[in-house]
Amino acid sequence: MEKTAIITGGANGIGYSSAKQLASLGFKIALIDRDTQKLENAVEIIQSTHNVECKSYIADVSNEDESELAYDRILAELKQPLLLFNNAGIMPRQLGPVEQLPTKNFNEMINIHLNGAFIWSKLVIPKMKECGYGRIVNMSSFMGITGSPFRLDYVTAKAGLVGMTRGLATELARFGITVNAVAPGFVLTETLKERVTNGFIDAEKISERTPVGRWATPDEISSAVAFLMSDKSSYITGHVLPIDGGTAMSLLIGENIGSLS
Ligand SMILES: NC(=O)c1ccc[n+]([C@@H]2O[C@H](COP(=O)([O-])OP(=O)(O)OC[C@H]3O[C@@H](n4cnc5c(N)ncnc54)[C@H](O)[C@@H]3O)[C@@H](O)[C@H]2O)c1
Predict the structure, then answer these.
(1) Is it the case that residue 251 has pLDDT exceeding 90?
(2) Residues 167-188: what's their mean pLDDT?
(3) Tally of domains in the chain
(4) Taking a C-beta distance cutoff of 8 angstroms, is the pair 186, 215 a contact?
(5) Known catalytic residue: 235?
(6) What is the distance in A from the centroid of ligand 1 to the CA of 66?
(7) 211 in a domain, yes or no?
(8) CA–CA separation, 34 vs 11, rounded Å?
(9) Which one of the listed residues 71, 133, 154, 235 is annotated catalytic?
(10) How far is the CA of 76 from the centre of ligand 1 (A)?
(11) The predicted structure's pLDDT at residue 181
(12) How do strand 4-8 and strand 28-33 relate by DSSP bridges?
């Protein structure tokens, strides 16, 4: 059966990298994003590199009407949208104590990450049930597993995606639909490079605190996404896969190593 993979936030970063991996496996590609320019570039490169149909759809994932319109066009143009990667997201607009976090920032974060994933899951599930087949992968973060101070909007949204993954996985398991999540550590995408350049985050400190000693590349995340989207992951559902170089499981205390006596 020919299958189409929908990738939200597919114009850039991890989403774009995942689109390329999935195209190389022969899936048709539907990219959803609100960045028109980057969407055009992404489609052009995927079409010219891989022998698959790839189309872009401009929509804000948190807008139900825009998303419905885009999904109807995907159904008509690409058919069989049986794979969904709920990846679209933004980084916190500011870091700081919760009492200074503007409610509008919190709501925006929840809207894009959680409502966006909810809206798109709701859209794709009827067709998946009809076909008795589906793969949904949600983009969480190691911060949704461990917690992290001064970004309650982001941590809450990413932890919510863990709950959504488990709830959906149990509800959909009997329909041949698997639902999993990936929980990356720090990934060197353009968006995070910018944050390093403008001093928002300290790239070297992060490398030091990561057990493997470096950041991830987008491809190191998308290869796991591609596996979870493939037939090979058929008995894996409700799983949250850390892809974080060991960050979530480690506590690097910073002691001096040596003997006390
Ligand atoms: N980069 C990291 O270190 C990292 C780590 C863990 C999790 N993540 C998550 O991975 C996802 C992708 O991150 P990235 O670093 O590739 O970011 P990115 O900025 O490179 O790409 C995100 C894409 O999502 C799109 N987008 C944002 N809001 C949207 C909306 N409302 N509707 C439609 N499209 C929208 C953007 O236009 C962009 O193309 C995000 O959910 C992010 O939280 C990233």
Answers:
(1) no
(2) 98
(3) 1
(4) yes
(5) no
(6) 18
(7) no
(8) 9
(9) 154
(10) 27
(11) 99
(12) parallel
Domain-embedded: residue 261? no
Q: Ligand 1 pocket by C-beta < 6 Å: which residues?
A: 8-9, 11-15, 33-35, 38, 60-62, 87-90, 112, 116, 139, 141, 184, 186-187, 189-192
Q: What local confidence, expressed as pLDDT, does residue 1 receive?
A: 82
- What is the domain-level CATH number for residue 119? 3.40.50.720
Residue % of the chain over a pLDDT of 90: 93
Instruction: Give the residue, out of 6, 145, 191, with the most ligand 1 atoms within 8 A of its beta carbon, to mutate for a pocket test.
Output: 191
Q: From CA 43, how far away is CA 32, in angstroms rounded?
A: 11
Q: What is the pLDDT of residues 77-120, one digit of tens each?
A: 999 999 999 999 999 999 999 999 999 999 999 999 999 999 99
Handedness of CA 72, 77, 79, 84 (dihedral sign): negative
Q: Is residue 256 part of a domain?
A: no
**C-alpha to C-alpha distance for 241 and 182, rounded to whole angstroms:** 5
Q: What is the pLDDT of residue 211?
A: 95
Q: Which of 40, 55, 42 lies closest to 16 in space, CA to CA?
A: 42
Ligand 1 pocket mutation pick from 141, 161, 165, 240 by most atoms within 8 angstroms of CB: 141
Dihedral over Cα of 190, 228, 157, 175: its sign: positive
Query: Tokens 């189409």 identify what position?
Result: 4
The owner of tokens 């104590």 is 97
CA dist., res. 242 & res. 107, Å (int):
26
DSSP-based three-state secondary structure for 91: coil
Contact (CB, 8 A) for 76 and 127: no
Owning domain of residue 75: 4-186+219-243
Residue 37 maps to a domain: yes
